[in-house]
Amino acid sequence: MKNKLNEEMLRLGKERSAIRELFEYGRQRAKEIGAENVFDFSLGNPSVPAPVSVTKEAERLLREVPAEQLHGYTSAAGAPEVRAAVAEYIGKTFSVPQKAEHIYMTCGAAASLTVLLGALCTPGDEIVVIAPYFPEYRVFIERAGGKVREVPAAEDFHLDLGALEEAIGAQTKAVLYNSPNNPTGAVYGEEELRGLARLLERKSRERGTPVYLIADEPYRELSYGAPVPYAMNLYDHAIVCYSFSKSLSLAGERIGYLAVSPRCADADALFAAVCGAGRALGYVCAPALFQRVIAANLGKASDVSVYRANRDLLCEEMRACGFSYVAPEGAFYLFVKSPEPDAKAFCERAKGHELLLVPSDSFGIGGYVRVSYCVPRQTIERALPAFAALAREYGL
Amino acid sequence: MKNKLNEEMLRLGKERSAIRELFEYGRQRAKEIGAENVFDFSLGNPSVPAPVSVTKEAERLLREVPAEQLHGYTSAAGAPEVRAAVAEYIGKTFSVPQKAEHIYMTCGAAASLTVLLGALCTPGDEIVVIAPYFPEYRVFIERAGGKVREVPAAEDFHLDLGALEEAIGAQTKAVLYNSPNNPTGAVYGEEELRGLARLLERKSRERGTPVYLIADEPYRELSYGAPVPYAMNLYDHAIVCYSFSKSLSLAGERIGYLAVSPRCADADALFAAVCGAGRALGYVCAPALFQRVIAANLGKASDVSVYRANRDLLCEEMRACGFSYVAPEGAFYLFVKSPEPDAKAFCERAKGHELLLVPSDSFGIGGYVRVSYCVPRQTIERALPAFAALAREYGL
Fold first, then answer.
1. Which of B234, B268, B295 is at the close of a domain?
2. What ipTM, to 2 d.p.?
């Protein structure tokens, strides 16, 4: 018997994300030829373990808190003491008078975004994203009823304020940015973000409603020197979507939060809409144990120096091979120029060397590949001959 | 500056669910007069601790599995070994040839439902629900683009096949049922479910596309004697939405699954659409630690005898007070007839005695209140004088 499903969801499910697809391919290939012979640079799955304090706190909670309290529902927005701790941490770290009642604990950054977009979007609304961008942005925005407005980054993958000026209009609900950036590793500086803030202030004033600024910050702690300005200090109508996936290496535990700036227009109403969207999407509460675990680990981070060392090794060797790229300032991705215009064809060739790289097409621009270097150092070391052979194939 | 949010999400966020609202009120009231003086019967938050084996397994995993493996992303549909364990458990327990590739691990029953409804619904589709029903069904169905078609239950809160026959037509995408039932405690028997299956088979055949049967089963293990038939054994086009929230007292950890029957039409396509909807709603994967915890605890359950004892005590005392109800066969709710037609007014009066009860209006029928008896026995014992006083107010 034939059936009529939601065609859009079917399409999304069949194509999967290009990244997830490669991840599954890598798992399969590892079974065939051994994990040590597959060089999987596809996924942003942290390779550094969670800090010991994370494990210790989980163990302590399991030992000391009665199970029916520990594992029961929390309030939909999160356990009150967890929200208070997060608000206090933000206040202390960024000098923002963050209110606990504007913290919404989420099942990770993806949930932070889907819930926020659900709260904000009405049909016709545009969300401005800076290309290249995390491909799921499009999926999340469109499901929320919004439209994606791609604005290309400048050549160095930083903000192009002129292009943003042109793109933002009456239909713009928000600008969504991600810094440190996936896939380019760019970290937006204070000056360019202040420029963006001034632009958004002017546009908001002109039309009489705020253009929101959404800071998607799962890589905040993964900057190798460049300061990462806090959006709320630059612009009133800012919402921060945070995740502990990368900072505490808890990607699979789905824990993060959404913080609405105390200076945001209609902050209480916006927060109520966030609660409504969370409810409608089936997010009853963020996982209870890990809410408490992160509350005791705010400001801590996995050993980020490992990623820095990976970056340095990979950059050096890729340069030696003849590949070109813009040196990443943060996150754990190297965005490499494809030696042929078709990045997908390049990635297929790379597969022949057991190198799993993500073509940039799904990030909204062609001609690049993303190399995730959140992998064991040996993976990079063992992959170097494969990268060299690949470069030779292209006569680099 | 005034803003334009998604009005529907704002409305949902402002009203909250009546249940969640009471839960928050109860927390507040507990601060004011002491938790022991508030008799909160509002929420289905398990009062019995998780089995010791749950805690032990969580501790073992934290101790023995390297953190970067334990807490990393799993595949979107779940860790392969977890999906295999769930499929094997279903196969063994219900004699269904469940395929692991049709198991999708979720962040609990709410996520199972929002993801499934997202996969199924196209505009105009109706989802049949049996009133009274869990109020979030409406929120989930409408957000997925579907329409709610309420079909009243029979007087004993079991299925009314005649009414279902009338309601199911070309526009029906699925029938969604919940047994053991929230809020009535009814457990649908094999005969009535076979009748429903025959009806759905005929309707499916007539129109040439399947009417899906969605079994929402968070209370499966909470039946006090009545067998709980397995939907897949009665009907081909069945999907089971399961949660470990109640069976293992893990409500806050958000862990459950969705199982598509191997005999379901287009099962692979349906599963792909489920993956697509999961992706679009931001469900990257179910929480990694608890995926593994439940895999080692399939078939185990918290001490359900506590709920049975609570039920017996509460039923006896409520009867003695003069209240009337249909004796619950499962779950942990007592559905009590309001002594005045307006259940909300009755609940307000109950609040005066510090009794927090949920009016039935949000469940799709008037004139009843839901009393959740998943509370410490002392709460029931201490509340008895309050129930008695309330009954006297109504001259019962």
1. B295
2. 0.94
